[in-house]
Amino acid sequence: MRYVSTRGGAAPRGFEDILLAGLAEDGGLFMPETWPRLSTSDWRALRGLPYSVLAARLIHPFTGGALSLEKLEALTSQAYAGFDHPAVAPLVQLDSRLFALELFHGPTLAFKDMALQLLGLLFDHVLEKRGERITIVGATSGDTGSAAIEACRDRAAIDIVILHPEGRTSEVQRRQMTTVLSPNVANLAVQGSFDDCQDLVKAMFADIPFRTEVRLAAVNSINWVRIAAQIPYYAYAALALGAPDRPVAFSVPTGNFGNVMAAWAARAMGLPIARLIVGSNRNDILTRFLAGNDMSMRPVEPSLSPSMDIQVSSNFERLLFELLGRDAATTAEAMRRFRSEGRMPVPEAAWQAARGLFDGFALDDAGTLAEIKTLWRRGGYLADPHTAVGTAAARALAPADHGIPVVVAATAHPAKFPDAVAEATGERPPLPAGLADLYERPERFNVLPNELAGIEAFVRAHARRNIA
Ligand SMILES: *Cc1c(COP(=O)(O)O)cnc(C)c1O
């Protein structure tokens, strides 16, 4: 299995390279050269497997022999062992044909753990094999930092430093990062804003001698391996509901398009997915595209579902490449014009092809609160605001054929967004048992001024200490 860039300007690469590289040199995203296809009997044979075994079987074709199936199964088993539900991603019935696939049972209570817990182990495996180390540096305004820290903590070949703006994250968010006391993890509270933190990270990547010295790397949101690691849960849910002999639809609360792109990939592998419903909040670029081929950027507005507050869905480039019949030149040109003109020209045929599979649905904050309330009143289900966008979208757009169940990707635990849930239902969702003592745990972080030289000196010392 080799990988090509969506913009056509990079030589095909193997699995280990694209795992470590993230983005292609030409600015494009890596895609598998061909899709592994499973037959109907192959799918049937996967029914009823434990999650980690199913995950290894479905991810293995993408590794191109970089590691054995046995080794991969050991890694998936380790990755999901710490989840707080034995099913890893349990399916909960909400209505006669509506289900929630709970993807939030990992350490940071959001679906990103499904991919990042495995990614951290894969990084470590490949780096150790090559005798290399890396230093991961990132900026966070809250959630991505904790998912990255949980993925990289205690990994032998990785050091990680996460910058957050001092005093500007919620206490839960800060504590989810700063109570991780593993020696390879460091948190920096920067005396500045989130934008300052991002600028500092960019400046570190632009400082080539520094970047080379500490082997700087990022856990990139556009890394293909993150998408690959999200394919298995779509299969897990579909197989439980009767696939491959019965088609299913999915409704996915969407931001960067990474989660729903994994559903598309599962379909490309032969899983019978009838429809994909893309849910957005008031930042509705994808809904506008699907409704009227209007892919134009607008300023980001804050909402109750902050992980979907986006202006550009970076993984959409992968779908565009496929819709265009893998025409990399046209993809590259569309992306160039999107950047320069703020509007992506998508040819009519590609737009029609997208509408043949996808539906878009946008919901504002008032609608989100109303949906959380409805779910609680009707079935006693506490949903977080992201999940509620997905269930409302599923209700509005379920396929007419009632034989097709609709599965909503439940992307965050309600306790991660307690204020919105309490406002809608009057119930304050408690943190799960594993995090119940979060407020008593000791914290460790350093406060530093918003000044590059001091931050680089800290990162250098952190990386060196662990090499020695
Ligand atoms: C990241 C995130 C999303 C959006 O997922 P994409 O893959 O970016 O589309 C939705 N909900 C939650 C809770 C998230 O953390």
Task: Please specify the SSE layout and strand pairing.
Layout lengths: L2 E3 L9 H7 L8 E3 L7 H6 L5 H9 L9 H13 L9 E5 L2 E5 L9 H19 L3 E6 L3 H10 L5 E8 L5 H8 L6 E7 L2 H13 L1 H7 L1 E2 L6 H5 L2 H10 L7 E6 L4 H11 L4 E8 L4 H8 L23 H8 L4 H14 L6 H8 L2 E5 L2 H15 L5 H13 L8 E5 L7 H8 L20 E4 L2 H16 L1
Parallel strand pairs: 4-12, 5-6, 5-8, 6-7, 7-13, 9-10, 9-12, 10-11
Antiparallel strand pairs: 1-2, 3-4
Bound molecules: pyridoxal-5'-phosphate.
Radius of gyration: 21 Å
Instruction: Give the class from helix and strand content and strand pairing.
Output: alpha/beta
- The CATH architecture of one domain is 3-Layer(aba) Sandwich
CATH topology (level 3) name of one domain: Rossmann fold
Beta-strand level of the residues, as a percent range?
A: 5-15%
N-end to C-end Cα span: 37 Å
Count of helical segments?
20
> What is the CATH domain class of one domain?
Alpha Beta
Looking across the biggest beta sheet, what order are the strands in? 3-4-12-9-10-11
| Poorly predicted parts | none
Bound molecules: pyridoxal-5'-phosphate
Name the helicity range. 40-55%
Main sheet overview = 6 strands, mixed
What's the mean pLDDT score?
94
Number of beta strands: 13
Looking at the structure, what is the overall shape? globular
Task: Explain what the structure shows.
It is a single chain. Helix 3 packs across helix 4, helix 5 packs across helix 6 and helix 6 packs parallel to helix 7. The chain has 468 residues and is α/β, with parallel strands linked by helices. It is globular. The longest helix has 19 residues. It has 20 helices and 13 strands. Helix 12 links the parallel strand 9 and strand 10. Helices cover 44% and strands 14% of the residues. It has a domain of 218 residues: 3-Layer(aba) Sandwich (Rossmann fold), CATH 3.40.50. Strands 3-4-12-9-10-11 form a 6-stranded mixed sheet, with helices on both faces. It has a 5-stranded parallel sheet with strand order 8-5-6-7-13, sandwiched between helices. The site of pyridoxal-5'-phosphate has 16 residues, from helix 12. Pyridoxal-5'-phosphate (PLP) binds next to helix 12.
